[in-house]
Write a structure and sequence with these properties.
With about 375 residues, the protein is mainly alpha-helical. It has a single domain (about 5-320), classed as ABC transporter involved in vitamin B12 uptake, BtuC, CATH 1.10.3470. It has helices at about 15-40, 50-75, 80-95, 100-125, 130-150, 165, 175-195, 195-205, 205-210, 215-245, 255-265, 275-295, 300-340, 345, 355-364; strands at about 170, 175. It has a two-stranded antiparallel sheet. The two termini are about 30 Å apart.
């Protein structure tokens, strides 16, 4: 994730990226509509207001964490400890809510996620270790901490005010859904309309070149890990508030759902590319599929097959696209090298004229 990309792996021009993003979003929308129609035909209660409300709540928890994970991945990093952070934040908030004011407990829960993100970022940057290894270790460590804090039993007996955040709403819409929409809108604005967003993309595309251009790799890396930890923590305390407590089993497999949604939404696993709109649509699609499978009377475990298959498919498509772009870059570089007046001629090399044609034929 941190390794610098070769020149041949440069991103396609902005216009091509926008075109690909538009096609991906249209495809996701078409899949959402198609699946919703099929599920409704099988179970005419699937698209009722009550059903959509439940689906929206489930989607919002994954979606909030996915926004932070998307920013982190666009910046060239990844966090596999999201599920454990989700659980830790919910447990910390619930435990504190037994004795302290609900507002303080909820704040502490979110802050604990940010602290874990900061530690992950410090280790990744200072020790220069792969974020996969660091966050995989954090996943196990934090899960053990959660089990110790809870005594391997659910945390209950919280104050009544603790549940207000997760169970309240605005204009008839559950508050977690509203928060998800706000977080997504803020992240989209950050990426597309601010200099910080440009820096995140540049750093994810080519870390070494970005640092040579004057960007602070330390600040970007730590900031993105903190953002990912805070969003995972926010999702955790919302889920805990909604349920009125926390379980030590919170968030098991949560990171798989989040990363699948991020990659399926078009965020490049190598960094530097991705849009929040695609992530939001993929979160909605996966939420509908998971709920729809149950609504249609199918084995709920099929949902796991769908999520796992979607992740593999999305990664494969991403990799194929990267290889195609690299071939195009190599062909263009070779054509420029052997062109009349090009580098080959200036340094006195003689290159057969059919070489670029042969390369072009292989790359097509």
């Amino acid at each position: 994730m941190n390794s610098t990309k070769a020149a041949s792996g440069r991103r396609p021009r902005i216009g091509a990226q926008r075109s690909e993003a538009a096609i991906r979003n249209i495809t996701l929308i078409a899949l959402i509509v198609a699946f919703s129609v099929v599920a409704q035909l099988v179970n005419d209660n699937f698209l009722t207001l009550a059903s959509l409300r439940v689906i929206g709540l489930n989607v919002s928890f994954i979606g909030i964490a996915a926004i932070g994970a998307a920013l982190l991945m666009i910046g060239g990093q990844i966090d596999l400890s999201i599920g454990s952070i989700f659980a830790l934040s919910a447990v910390v908030a619930a435990l504190l809510a037994q004795s302290f004011p609900p507002g303080l407990a909820l704040f502490a829960g979110v802050a604990s996620g940010g602290v874990v993100g900061l530690i992950n970022g410090l280790i990744v940057w200072r020790i220069n270790v792969s974020p996969i290894i660091v966050t995989l270790g954090a996943l196990t460590f934090i899960r053990g901490l959660v089990l110790i804090l809870t005594g391997d039993s659910s945390v209950t007996g919280v104050s009544a005010g603790f549940t207000e955040l997760g169970r309240s709403g605005a204009f008839g819409v559950p508050l977690p859904i509203v928060i998800f929409a706000a977080v997504a809108a803020g992240a989209a604005f950050l990426l597309m309309q601010t200099r910080t967003g440009l820096h995140i993309r540049a750093f994810g595309d080519d870390q070494r070149a970005a640092e040579l251009a004057g960007l602070s790799g330390k600040r970007i890396t730590q900031g993105l890990f903190v953002a990912s930890g805070l969003t995972a923590g926010l999702a955790g305390i919302l889920a805990g508030s909604r349920l009125g407590g926390a379980s030590p089993n919170f968030g098991i497999g949560f990171e798989l759902e989040v990363i699948t949604a991020v990659v399926l939404g078009g965020v490049a696993i190598t960094g530097g590319e991705g849009r929040i709109s695609g992530v939001v649509l993929s979160v909605v699609l996966l939420g509908l599929v998971t709920s729809g499978i149950t609504a249609m009377g199918l084995d709920p475990n099929i949902g796991r097959l769908v999520v796992g298959g979607a992740l593999v498919t999305a990664v494969a498509i991403n990799q194929i696209g990267q290889e195609r772009h690299q071939k195009l870059q190599r062909r263009q570089a070779l054509e420029e090298f052997v062109a009349e007046g090009g580098v080959a001629e200036r340094i006195g090399l003689t290159v057969k004229s059919e070489v670029p044609k042969k390369e072009a034929g292989n790359g097509s």
